[in-house]
Each structure stands twice: as structure tokens, then as C-alpha cells.
Amino acid sequence: MRIDALVDQILASYSEYGRVNQADADGFPNRENVVAVLQNLQSLLFPGYRTAEQLDEYNLRYITGQRINTVISLLTKEIQKALVYEMLRYNGKNKDAKQYLCYALAEKTAIAIIKELPEIRRMLVLDVQALFKGDPAAKSDEEVIVSYPGMEAIIVYRLAHFLHVNGVPVIPRIMSEHVHGKTGIDIHPGATIGESFFIDHGTGIVIGETSVIGKNVKIYQGVTLGALSVEKSLSDTKRHPTVEDDVTIYANATILGGKTVIGKGSVIGGNTWIT
User: pTM of the prediction?
Assistant: First the structure.
């Protein structure tokens, strides 16, 4: 079969299954650009840990400014695309007008996450300290930041959560699924997680969209904070558990349901099933 015939077959499938292809590259957030934004945000949070570069008191200000400009520029474009896409889905056409209306909101949100970085850093320092204190194998805060998959998942969650609660479509999920693929830890950006959060080992952890987790909570590998089977029409209801402060949940425990509450100071044994 000639190449032209193969091309025709593939193009025909684009028409037949139109909803699953995105020929208009400018019409939907680009995963590669979102990951680039995420990597720059992580470097702003912990400079010197993510990339092979020489930082000192003379160039740190310049590199920080350069990264901020990169994030604002890239993220504004991707948020704008996400907002326009959502508006066109629910409110019909006139794409040019909607792009104009969405740009200002996108830029405002991109600047807002930069302004929020000091507060996110404050929370992440507490998370690092919780990981270091809670794991006898950890030798330093630096080791936790560089090498612990649980810490990387928490960093990305806190960034994605900020965008999620500020109404950004799609992009928070791209961020969370990127780190999910790297670490095996699946935290929905809609979940609410308090300070000093400790993920030990981490592989196989699932934390659903409406989960609420308090302060000083420790979770081991394989834990699921999930939903009971519900209809799609109930997607706006609380479907996932609440875990109060100072709780430890051991490996492979499964806790399900929006009405399920794990009380303050509880210890949940491994391989338990709780509804």
C-alpha cells in the first residue's frame, strides 16, 4: 500500500472520530509547554536542585527573573487556550472575541501563582521537615527534596491545586498526571491537603478530587482515598473521605466514600478496607 493511501486512511479517521484528535494545535493546552512551566516553577521553589547550573549571589537574581518571565509568558498562553476551549465548549463560537477576553484573566492567574510561591515554599518546607523527621532513612532535607518521589508529588500537587482553585481548566490535571507517571502517586489537584504532609515510599497512592486531609498526616504506599461507585451526575458532590489531623494510614489501606471521616489521631492498619 502506498503512503498516500495510508495518509488518506488516517485523515479519514480524523473526520470519523473528530472528538479524539486535536488538529488545531493552538486550540488546547500543550502538554510539553505545561511540563516546561512546571519544571521552571519547581526550580523557582528550590533553586539549584532541578537543573545543572551554577548559582551564586551574583547571578541568582538574574536567573530568578528570567524564570519568572518564562513562566508568566508560557503559562499565560496555555491558560488562555484552556479558558477559550472551555468557553467554546459551553457557550458556542466567536473564538477571536473569547481569546481577547481570556488573555487578561490568564495573565492575572499566571502572575498570581508567582506571587503565591513564597507561601507555597512555606508549606513545602513543613512537608520536607515532616518527611525528614518521619523517615529514619532520610539523612537530610536536601536528600528529601532531590530524591523522594513523595516530595516531588507534593510539590506538584501544591502548584496544581493553586491553579485548580483559581478556576484554571485542564492544566492542573496535566501537571498532576505528569508527576503521577514519574512517581506512581496520583493526587487530584482538587484535593485539600494541610501542612506537614508525609508520603512514605508512595508508589500506588491515590487521593481523589474531593478528599480533605488535615495537618501532620502520614500516608504509606498503596493507600487509596477513593470514592464509592457513583453516577456521573453526582460529580459535584463530596465523593472522597475526610482525614483529620495527626492520622497515620499504613500500606495498602483503602478508605472510600464522601461521608467517611477518619478522626484526629487515628492509626489505620495496613490492608484495611473502610467505608
Answer: 0.90
Task: Give the 3-state secondary structure of the chain.
Answer: CCHHHHHHHHHHHHHHCHHHCCCCHHHCCCHHHHHHHHHHHHHHHCCCCCCCCCCCCCCHHHHHHHHHHHHHHHHHHHHHHHHHHHHHHHHCCCHHHHHHHHHHHHHHHHHHHHHHHHHHHHHHHHHHHHHHHHCCCCCCHHHHHHHCHHHHHHHHHHHHHHHHHCCCCCHHHHHHHHHHHHHCCEECCCCEECCCCEEECCCCCEECCCCEECCCCEEECCCEEECCCCCHHHCCCCCCCEECCCCEECCCCEEECCCCEECCCCEECCCCEEC
Mean pLDDT per 10-residue section of the chain, whose length is 275 residues: 86 76 69 96 89 78 92 96 83 60 90 97 97 95 95 98 97 98 98 97 97 98 93 83 98 97 98 97
Cα 26 to chain centroid distance, Å, stands at 22
Q: Are 227 and 239 in contact (CB under 8 A)?
A: yes
Phi-psi region of 201 (alpha: psi -120 to 50; beta: other; left: phi over 0): left
Query: Cβ distance 218 to 127 under 8 Å?
Result: no
